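[job 4471] stage=fold_predict status=RUNNING
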Amino acid sequence: MKLFYLLLLYCGFAAGQSTPHELAERFFRATANNDLAGFKQIYPDVTALTFFIKSVDKESVYTDAMIDEASTIGTDNAVNSFETLQYEINRQGISLKGARITNILTINDEIQLNEGQEGLPIMTKITKITIQFATAAGKNYSLVIPQTVQIKDRWYISEQQMEISSL
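[job 4471] inference complete, writing structure tokens
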């Protein structure tokens, strides 16, 4: 089950973004509008999660019931990450009303999802996204999405905690 949870961590939020930039823009809009419903829409549904897991699980260890459970847990964790990010934005007194993206940076990497576990290595490519933006008041910030992954030509955000900081 630990491997399954790790797979879910790297699967993140979905919605039909064909590039990391589109994913970043959609994520930023949901964050700026404190739109939890919109945020949930960019989390992968069980169909996308099933495709991803079955494409990397060459030993067919995971059942549909396990994937359904992981999808529910992942959605709950993603909602918690979003709420924590919104809390941090409010705590820092950042107003996203009228904010605009000034730059989107990406860094690509490859990770082993089942590191330290038995079985064949399960590798996947990830992309870290940094969204630089300016508020209406002229202050500059960066919003970091630590890990995103591409599944079936769509980009998904992991449930890992996003970070916001001033530039």
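[job 4471] summary: Strands lie at 13-17, 100-112, 123-134, 140-151, 154-157, 163-166.
[job 4471] exit 0
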